[in-house]
Amino acid sequence: METNLVLEQPAYKTSTFHFLWKVFRNPLDALTDLAREQGDIARVKLRRRDLFLLNHPAFIEEVLVRQADNFVKGPSLQRARIILGEGLLTSEGDEHLAQRRALQPAFHRHKMEEYLPLMNENTHTHISKWKDAEAVDMSDEMMRLTLNIALWSFFGSAPEGTVERVSDSMKTLIRLFPLAQMPLPESARSFFPSFKKAKASLSAVTEALLQHPKTERALVHILKQNNNGQFTDEQIHSHALTFLLAGHETTALLLFWCWDMLAHHPMEQSILQAEADSVLGDRFPTPEDIQKLSFTRMIVKETLRMRPPAWALGREAARDCEIGGQRIPAGSTVLMSQWVTHHDSRFYEDPLQFRPERWSDLDQPSTPRYSFFPFGGGSRVCIGEHFATTEAIAVLALTARRWHIAPAQRRLAKPKPSVTLRPDKSVRQIVSRRAV
Ligand code: HEM
Asked: Does residue 350 lie in a domain region?
């Protein structure tokens, strides 16, 4: 694969201030422009350390896989510890490896057989409440649905009021996350009562879920089984909170973006409906059906390409190293952006076009592995990848079987990058009952 790598990239030509101003105004455009101006490795001189943006799949693979030992999580995930503690997302090194090994059995492919009926039942209950021709807030709808699925799948129950408490706290934390990102002492943070309140509320919900599961699911079972051995009480709490939050928010956004695309691409929506009609009929999807719903899977992949809920990954170089001839000094920040790479015309023809069929097996060109990395890669690849993909396919197919989704506004929703890629404002869509 050709790269336009220049050995030892000079630091960003325009001023650092100008770059930071662009990031403040629109991070997606700022990173896209930086990649366009500097090529496969872009370098920006920050006050104390350099920032490198890697824009070639081979270099992304270097960081996530080949030289993964040279890197630790970037500053923003390190600071996410303020909320998540030492969970799987935030731990490092041998500690991370041991915890990942212990938790992995809850996410094996064959475990999906246990989770799929919960995904189906929750989806059925949720979409049965919609009224014909009503305008629903799709992002909120998908948040509630995926949260219910996560609660039932990981904790075995969804006690009354839990969904409301978690979603209210999440809204506050996401709004105040820039504050959590600032290197402030804990005492300074306590001046922000709503931040403290949201954190405490999530903590209380998590504790209640751990203490009183109706049915002990694999995740809680593993956590408790290993108590006083592998996991301390604090770690159990952090893991449970991590799965509660990471286990629903990103999937809800993926589903929201799928509906946004489908509402504006009626042809693709009708192919989805035809596939759901022929594969499912009036049944709930089985694991075999999930494999057969191939166009639905292509929609999921194309949406992950165009609207990746995780839009950038950050790492910090733990020691001096070299990537593609570029020296990366210890302490530098390295960024890899799914948004930038997934829109690169070297890897995707007409990258701004929503074309699910580009993912059909026959049509799949030999694009490099890391030109598509919505779930990250290497030993830190998302542990919930199969769970999220299965869930997205089941929700799309079951919904498409019963409902037609139309846009309430002319344009696609505008993506707003915060912790994850969200719509910039709430988006309504009109749901009409299909005559089936
Ligand atoms: C569309 C949905 C999802 C997307 C796009 C997504 C994306 C990601 C990405 C990019 C990473 C890597 C972060 C990094 O390397 O810094 C990650 C890690 C992680 N995800 Fe997901 N995720 C999704 C769904 C889920 C679900 C459903 C769960 C829970 C079951 C989950 C739990 C986690 C955890 C615990 C990690 C940390 C893994 C580790 O470091 O070992 N994610 N996710």
From this structure: yes
